[in-house]
Amino acid sequence: MVPETDFIVVGSGIAGLRAGLELARAGAGVTVLTKDRREESNTEYAQGGIAVALADTDEVSLHEEDTTSAGAGLCDERAVEVLVEEGRWYIRELIEWGAEFDREGGRLLFTREAAHSRPRILHAHGDATGREIVRALLARAGAERKISFLAHAETESLIVQDGRAVGVRYLDPLVRAPRTLLARGVVLASGGAGALYLHTTNPAVATGDGMAMAFDAGAELADMEFVQFHPTALNLEGAPRFLLSEALRGEGGVLRNAAGKRFMPRYHDAAELAPRDIVTRSIVAEMERTATRTVFLDMTAFDAAYLRRRFPKIYSTCLGFGLDLARDPVPVSPAAHYIMGGVRTDLEGRTSLPGLYAAGEVACTGVHGANRLASNSLLEGLVFGARAGRAAAQDLAVPHAAAVGTGATDDGGPGATAREDLRRMSAAADAVRKRVRRLMWERVGILRSRASLTRALSEFEQIARAPLRTAPRNFLTVAALIARAALWREESRGAHFRVDFPARDDGRWRVHSIIQKDAGISSAETVEFAATVRQ
Ligand code: SIN
């Protein structure tokens, strides 16, 4: 007998948890599958905060304007309106549910980040905003009898029957054997793909599996070429690329080159608070100009007591690597951070495949356009996670698929020989991932060209000829999708920069890229982009 649940949510970050809560509110049973611990997601690592127009000095229309202008002509206007307007309501609800954002004298504190015209970033415990949000949502979900979690269960593929997503295949957490779970609908909230790059601020789980699964199942993906690189990740031998939040620059931190000279004013009027893609490319240019591999984030104008209070996690992490933020400029360089593209959805999280919904970083409503405004992603997960959960709940009366025809081949787990094969294949998978990460960084990274992208694609094809298990194949699929879309877009816009087409070309390219299995790449108009998803 193949196990069933009402709905499957893949991923336990802000979008998945919020979708699950909405489904449970509608009376549906929910199984949340998560690849690692239930706390492990990109959300957990979000430092700077969550943008919302709730400060006295702010207005929803300003948040809308800043989001649209960062998006470089590709934002879906309706999606942005939903984000900034409904975001205020969902944040208040989150506070009612126990999320504790930082306050002074009882009033919420808002900080400023790049390309925001007003201070509008809420934060928690200084620089542990994501962790606080996950804590509050998990506590809420834990009190819901309708929601159950299956941790360390790696989802590998979607099951499609008669043109509808009816379940998933995943690896059993204990014996690593394939398992099948059927449902009335599936919500993908599996996060982004930063771990496809050699240098990333993302945790290792962010490998874009949701995008690969949706693509293989026939759903449309959009805007895969738009990958955002965060300008300031720790760049120290032997240390991970730990994120040094934009909020540090928002509070007055400056960037200096290896000679100790501040350089951002030479590149942009807004200096360190220029849009993220501009700061990133300026750092790359400055490193090249000075023949160095790093620049420095200087917070030494601030005293240790303030930095320890305002940025406790960053302060203590740097200290762990022998750097005192109050005394030492910290070596930084850019790292892959966020993907604006993903599984194409309408404003309710519906994908082009019936029964499949998506929300958060795995999805693309067009809300971020070609470049996401800092701290809009947690808000997106909250708002569109709830919307996707609500839309999926309308499928509560859909009957479960018959197990026959789902290809269910569940067994007890591998014997000794199979275990040895698995060990060998997993070593091969590690080698594949390593090679793909380097190719992504060097050829599909911050600066791209026809030559670099073509070379990456031909290497991906070569790698794909080897027999691979599903997980590394998914990894390779997403890498190739990003490279294909980046090759297709012959202009520079937002986070996508082609050295061979350095200008933005609105006449030809003010369109979204759509990519679908067996159908190549096509384009979609920006007007009502989300509203035109066809199932
Ligand atoms: C940061 O804290 O700099 C990251 C915030 C974001 O990427 O939205």
What does this structure look like?
It is built from 16 helices and 22 strands. It is 36% helix and 18% strand. A hairpin with a 2-residue loop joins strand 9 and strand 10 (164-171). It has helices spanning 14-25, 42-45, 60-70, 77-96, 129-142, 209-216, 246-250, 264-267, 276-289, 304-310, 312-320, 377-393, 416-443, 450-464, 470-488, 506-509, and strands at residues 7-10, 30-33, 50-51, 103-104, 107-108, 110-111, 121-122, 147-150, 154-161, 164-171, 178-182, 185-188, 221-222, 227-234, 254-256, 295-298, 330-339, 342-344, 356-358, 363-364, 511-516, 520-525. The chain has 2 domains: 1-226 and 340-535, FAD/NAD(P)-binding domain (3-Layer(bba) Sandwich); 227-337, Succinate dehydrogenase/fumarate reductase flavoprotein, catalytic domain (Flavocytochrome C3, Chain A, domain 1, Alpha-Beta Complex), CATH 3.90.700. With 535 residues, the protein is α+β, with helices and mostly antiparallel strands. The protein has a 5-stranded parallel β-sheet, with helices on one face. The chain has a 5-stranded mixed β-sheet with strand order 20-18-13-21-22. It has a 4-stranded antiparallel β-sheet with strand order 14-17-16-15, with helices on one face. The two termini are 30 Å apart. Succinic acid binds next to helix 7.
SSE map:
Elements: E1 7-10, H1 14-25, E2 30-33, H2 42-45, E3 50-51, H3 60-70, H4 77-96, E4 103-104, E5 107-108, E6 110-111, E7 121-122, H5 129-142, E8 147-150, E9 154-161, E10 164-171, E11 178-182, E12 185-188, H6 209-216, E13 221-222, E14 227-234, H7 246-250, E15 254-256, H8 264-267, H9 276-289, E16 295-298, H10 304-310, H11 312-320, E17 330-339, E18 342-344, E19 356-358, E20 363-364, H12 377-393, H13 416-443, H14 450-464, H15 470-488, H16 506-509, E21 511-516, E22 520-525
Helix pairs in contact: 1-5, 1-12, 3-4, 4-12, 6-15, 10-11, 13-14, 13-15, 14-15
